[in-house]
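Long-time lurker, first post. I've been practising inverse folding by hand and with some scripts of my own, and I keep getting stuck on stretches where the structure tokens seem ambiguous. Below is the full token string for one chain I'm working on. Before anyone asks, I'm not after the true native sequence, just a reasonable design that respects the backbone. If someone could post their per-position residues I'd love to compare against what I wrote down in my notebook.
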């Protein structure tokens, strides 16, 4: 067991296979049409193995989402390792988050197949995820928690609703926006 964003999930080889299989099933079929028999079959394990580790489909979904969030935070940390300036760190964090959302197969698949299930989990039901992201950014960017939360909520809005006057397809424009608008917001 390991803690991922404050929750314990199984991450040994079998747990990884189950979560990999669940991610594929959720991507292709959404939450409602995915069943744990299909996850078990794709993972090459017995159905009871899935139930012993995660108990319910909701448990599998939560563990899958938490694992994906943890992977993203590792990617984010790695990209910002050598960036010392706070404005540059904010700009890189913003860009990496926008790009990660655009290319993440589970997120994009579920948005295409079952947005009505995913969007509440990323908005009104995202309290724990937002709190974890806020704590992470507060620590990594040396921000007080209120400013970190403002940044998380702004990034969340751009990631979920990319239509904007800001050209989010241009990396330099995304960085410039973050340096010009988010950096000063965090220092005010």
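-- Answer (accepted) --
I ran through it position by position. Result:
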């Amino acid at each position: 067991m390991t803690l991922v964003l404050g929750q314990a999930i199984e991450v040994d080889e079998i747990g990884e296979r189950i979560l990999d299989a669940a991610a594929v099933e959720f991507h292709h079929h959404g939450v409602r049409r995915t069943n744990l028999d299909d996850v078990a079959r794709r993972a090459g394990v017995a159905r009871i193995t899935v139930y012993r580790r995660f108990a319910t489909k909701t448990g599998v979904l939560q563990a899958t989402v938490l694992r994906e969030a943890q992977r993203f935070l590792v990617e984010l940390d790695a990209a910002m390792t050598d960036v010392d300036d706070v404005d540059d760190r904010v700009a890189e964090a913003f860009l990496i988050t926008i790009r990660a959302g655009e290319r993440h197969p589970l997120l994009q698949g579920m948005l295409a197949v079952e947005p009505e299930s995913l969007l509440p989990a990323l908005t009104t039901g995202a309290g724990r995820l937002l709190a974890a992201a806020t704590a992470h950014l507060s620590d990594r960017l040396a921000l007080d928690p209120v400013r970190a939360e403002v940044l998380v909520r702004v990034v969340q809005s751009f990631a979920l609703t990319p239509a904007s006057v800001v050209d989010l397809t241009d990396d330099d424009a995304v960085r410039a926006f973050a340096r010009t608008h988010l950096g000063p917001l965090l220092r005010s």
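A couple of notes from the structure itself: The radius of gyration is 18 Å. The chain has two domains: 1-65, 80-188. Happy to go over any region you disagree with.
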